[in-house]
């Protein structure tokens, strides 16, 4: 099945002009699947870390958001033990105007700025609220 032009264009841009600290590589056998490696943002607890994610574009992309999850385990109020990410643009705030690149940059920003008021991991959010430094 041929890929929509939009996915081809976005993929070419990700490869030719990657977002800083983010590599997204499509699988050869399924160009809707991407292996993502994201650097931990500077001045965050994740600085210096490398995080693996998988990103999948559903059949109805860009009408529905990409499915993204962390393969690397991390302790964060908006990421659960299965690597699922609680981020508004991956849910009800999705817009077809957004791109894979925007999504990945938003996830990277979430590492720097957790949102403990919309947690996926309640225990981590509670810990963050009571003892942010830890």
CATH topology: Ubiquitin Conjugating Enzyme
How many structural domains are formed by the residues?
1
Number of helices: 3
Q: Could you name the CATH homologous superfamily?
A: Ubiquitin Conjugating Enzyme
CATH C-level name: Alpha Beta
Secondary-structure-based class equals alpha+beta
Determine the strand fraction and express it as a percent band. Answer: 15-25%
Largest sheet: 4 strands, antiparallel
CATH architecture annotation name: Roll
Strand order of the largest sheet: 1-2-3-4
Distance between the termini: 49 Å
Q: Give the overall form.
A: globular
Characterization of this structure:
It is a single chain. The protein has a four-stranded antiparallel sheet with strand order 1-2-3-4. By secondary structure, the chain is an alpha+beta fold. The longest helix has 13 residues, at 100-112. The relative contact order is 0.16. Helix content is 25%, strand content 17%. It has one domain (5-130): Ubiquitin Conjugating Enzyme (Roll), CATH 3.10.110. It has helices at 5-16, 100-112, 122-130, and strands spanning 22-26, 33-39, 50-56, 67-70. The model has no long low-confidence stretch (mean pLDDT 93). The chain starts with a helix and ends with a helix. It has three helices and four strands; from the N terminus they run αββββαα. The protein is globular and about 50 Å long. Keywords: ATP-binding, Nucleotide-binding, Transferase, Ubl conjugation pathway. Pfam families: UQ_con. Residues 2-134 form the UBC core domain. The active site is at residue 86.
